Amino acid sequence: MKTSRIFLASIASIVLLQPAQAKRNRVTLEYALQKNLVKTCIQALGGHSGYCVSMHVKNTTPDSLEVLIEAGRKLNSVDPNEQDLLVVKEERVALKRGEEKKVVLKSYCCQLANYSPRAGSAFDLKSNWDTSLVKVARFLNNSTYNSSEEQQAVWAISEGRSSASVTGKDDSSTYQLRRFIAAVKGEVLPWYTVLSHTRVQRSGEIISKATGLRGVLTCTASEQQYAYLQLLDENGRLVAPVTGNWYYPGKNEQLVNLPLDGLAHGQYRLQIVSDKGVILTQKVDI
Q: Residues of 230-252 as b/e, b for ≥16 C-beta within 10 angstroms?
């Protein structure tokens, strides 16, 4: 009988100990870093967009950890000539005591003037949080867009580009993202969109140029007249093919589909002009 009591007591003590032994703390990476719960090592996989960087995370505590790597975190390039990256997809990492795991992070360039990171380039976590970029990253975390559209959304914030630059082959599929970017920037959603082409030089320099302007422009004419749609740079020079159309008294809707032949991003002037004068002029951010 005494032996049975000892055996039952032993089983009870094991049961009581199991929750403590199985303890798992759920924390954000920010909290884990502040409390020295983990060590990290971050390296570029090569490139500036998509799943282009890996993070090794090691648990330094006696308990299991579940670490949330937050969307909106900036990865600071150790090489000042290479780009910082913005994490846009959160990841959860479950770690046993002392365990280390590698996680590949979906990230985008947020420092276009610098070079695309080379494979093996190092990053640290010293960058400050940027409120606007955090908002965009969290939106992308819960959305599905292609990498080009997501990169344009990040650049609209980090490079100060218009929300009109956030588009793809189909403007309607990116409308919600474009509207969100406009709200974050505090700008009126433009009536037009700007298509761009991006290429990476062998040196790692990223060249991004505008290739097309499209939308439906509304204007009001006082009388019937044949007029021309013109796009001019800040010096008043024509920078796109001129198109002509008839305009009638009252409200007119003009379909705009201008090839931009690799124009530099910046501010331009769009105008509709006839021999009777200027019907409309307005600024557009390309």
A: bbebeeeeebbeebeeebeeeeb
CA 200 – CA 187 distance, rounded (Å): 30
Tokens of 169: 């082959």
Range list of β-strands (E), the chain: 24-28, 38-44, 49-59, 64-69, 74-77, 85-87, 91-95, 100-109, 122-124, 192-200, 206-221, 225-232, 243-247, 250-263, 267-274, 277-285
Helix (H) or strand (E) holding 132: helix 131-141
Question: Could you report the per-residue pLDDT of 115-172, keeping only the tens digit for each?
Answer: 999 999 999 998 888 999 999 999 999 998 999 999 999 999 999 999 999 998 788 8
- What confidence tens digit (pLDDT) does each residue in 214-253 have? 999 999 999 999 999 999 998 989 998 898 999 999 999 9
Distance CA 59, CA 236 (A): 61
Residue with tokens 């700008």: 187
Question: If we measure between CA atoms, which residue out of 128, 133, 134, 172 comes closest to residue 156?
Answer: 133
Residue with tokens 């703390």: 25
Bridge partners for 103 per DSSP: 55
Cα 52–Cα 87–Cα 267 angle in degrees, nearest 5:
95
185: amino acid identity, one letter: K
C-alpha 215/C-alpha 111 separation (Å) is: 29
Q: Is the pTM of this model over 0.90?
A: no
Q: Judge residue 189's burial from the number of C-beta atoms within 10 Å of its C-beta, 0-12 exposed, 13-18 middle, 19 or more buried.
A: middle
Structure token digits, residue 221: 């004419």
Looking at this protein, which amino acid is placed at residue 192? Y
Edge to edge, what strands does the sheet with 24-28 contain? 24-28, 64-69, 91-95
| 79-90 burial code (b ≥16 CB/10 A, e <16) | eeebbbbbbbbb
Q: Which of 111, 108, 207 is nearest to 159 (CA)?
A: 111
